[in-house]
Amino acid sequence: MDTRRRLIEAFDTVCAWAEEPGDGRPGDRAVLADQLRGGRAYLHPAYAGHLVKPPHRAAIAGHLATLLTGAEDPVPGAEPTTAGLAAEVVAELAAMVGLSAGRGRLTSGGGVADLEALWAAREVHPDRGIAHSADVHPGYARMCALLRMPAYAIATDAAGRLDPDALASELRRERVGTVVVTVGTSTLGAVDPIADVLPLCREHGVRVHVDAGYGGFFTLLADGDLLRPAPAARHLRAIGDCDSVVLDPHRQGLYPYGCGVLLFRDAAPVFRDAALEDAVGRDLGSADFPGEVLRPGESGLDGGTHAGAAAAALWLTLRALPLTRDGLGEVLAAGLRGTRRWCELIAAEPELMLYQDPELDVLSYLALAGEPRPRMSSVEAASRHILYAGAASAAGAAGAAGAAGAADAAPPAQLGTVPIRVLDFLRRHPRAVADRNRTRILRSVLLDPGAAPETDPGADPHADLFHARIATHAGTAPRRTVPAGVGAPM
Questions:
Q1: CATH 2.60.120.340: does it fit domain 328-475?
Q2: What is the DSSP-derived secondary structure letter of residue 479?
Q3: How far does Cα 258 stand from its chain's mean position?
């Protein structure tokens, strides 16, 4: 097989989709490009619908180079090709979150890492369950069912964070062995109050697991000017005092799918029988294998069979964007600045309203549809209108660009929505009209914030671009018809 030619063809396929419209050439490559072009504009700055950042070029290069060798990263002593890179990456990520003396390993995905963390929780407290925020990722319910361990949902506060008072009431029932806290919920990007939860859990002899799949990398900014004044900074700094942490590099680490990171502050209580103790990697004591790792191939629910490409690609990414405030931290800071710029624009826009202030870079907002007191039904109708208007604009722009052969056609703004319970909505906006028990609001994350002009450091070209287009769609959202003689709701 002509590997070089095939790789160039694959690269050209992506470029044809991401940069230019196709020219209708026959063949499988053109079909694939058409399929990609017809979907979401992911990897383009105009896409803001998912809580995932595009992979860095270094990650792609490292992944591709290692895939060609077929490295499986089994046991350090037998196949050290990428095992040393995995150990180095684990040590760097553990230090980033404050677990400098901890140990851990790479997994085949963030979901597997979370599942293994719950398995560890069950091993430590086999007769107890877990407690988690009511807004935890829905996958936890399925994982607990798979492990046959009880799970108890804890109420959230008015910002979508786990309520410490509600947790304290649950802990007094002595049926919880591990509390799961989230750094960046999948709904609103909320940060659970880890610093307040930890003393409660220690008082009751309960472990704390941190799902930092989305927001864990923001620890790089916890002591910086952007986040230090925010309440989230105190809780980000408390991650290092927790018992286990999961990171998902493909979300904020600019890494492709297929890699999770599981870290333990102290793995000994988890691997307490002889067989499991043998599966725990010791301090290998050399520059090639820094720190302690759980040996791939001998530990973990996935058997450690993830490809060595995960370790190599992540290692290379962290060389290009080191885990410092000026490295990867600056990428995250750009997202925060863009989000805050967008908040200012929404605050001045009569057609839109913030749902709540963002803690990280996840922005939640809604279209008012001409109603100062938004109705649940009107909010959902407006959200769907804007969502589908953006998708229609995407298809129209692609078609028009293809017909004209214009490579610089302006891409439409595409975003996402999230369902909201009516009581949660009313806690934030008590004057809203609850004419249904659920609604749907808009949610956005700037995928690739633009560079701020030197003359206006607070500006962000992508935030302004998004806002202008979404405000236009919001202005055309359906309005509720009010019968003649009936005034606006008070």
A1: no
A2: P
A3: 14
